[in-house]
Design brief:
Length: 153
């Protein structure tokens, strides 16, 4: 007799998509001073002169929130995932302080899901995407462990 939550791989991938969107949304909102508004630490853009002044950077934050909310409920997600990834790249180019480890995890998951077609046609396709997502998640911990061997810290 099976116990617990019984989901097939396709349902798991949908749940992962929703979980990544919720996690990214909550993480950005919990650290909203890093993403928009006035802050007490300097902005470090990648390119000289790339700066959006504080009242106007809320537009990018609101756009991120809207895209993530749409991504949670949408069936056709490739365009939305692409737009979120481009916006997140713009966020990082505007300020290097936004390059946080949790931001890498969420964006790597979204990058993998960008190439998924969300059709129910081949079970092996689901398995391969699920395995790639597991590898992305475990790679963060391997990289974290390798950083512990850094003699400079």
């Amino acid at each position: 007799m099976p116990t617990g939550l019984q989901l097939n791989i396709f349902q798991r991938l949908k749940l992962i998509k929703i979980s990544v969107c919720i996690g990214l949304l909550l993480s950005v909102l919990c650290s909203y001073n890093l993403w928009a508004g006035q802050r007490w630490f300097p902005v470090a853009p990648v390119f000289e002169g790339w700066y959006i002044s504080p009242p106007f950077d809320y537009i990018l934050l609101v756009l991120e929130v809207i895209l993530l909310l749409l991504l949670m409920v949408a069936d056709k997600t490739r365009l939305l995932i692409f737009l979120v990834l481009v916006l997140n790249l713009a966020f990082c180019l505007l300020d290097q302080n936004r390059l946080q480890p949790w931001f890498f995890i969420y964006n790597s998951f979204l990058l993998v899901l960008l190439f998924y077609n969300w059709r129910i046609d081949n079970v092996n396709t689901y398995n391969s995407f699920f395995i790639i997502l597991q590898l992305c998640f475990s790679a963060v911990y391997v990289y974290s462990g390798l950083q512990k061997f850094n003699p400079g810290l």
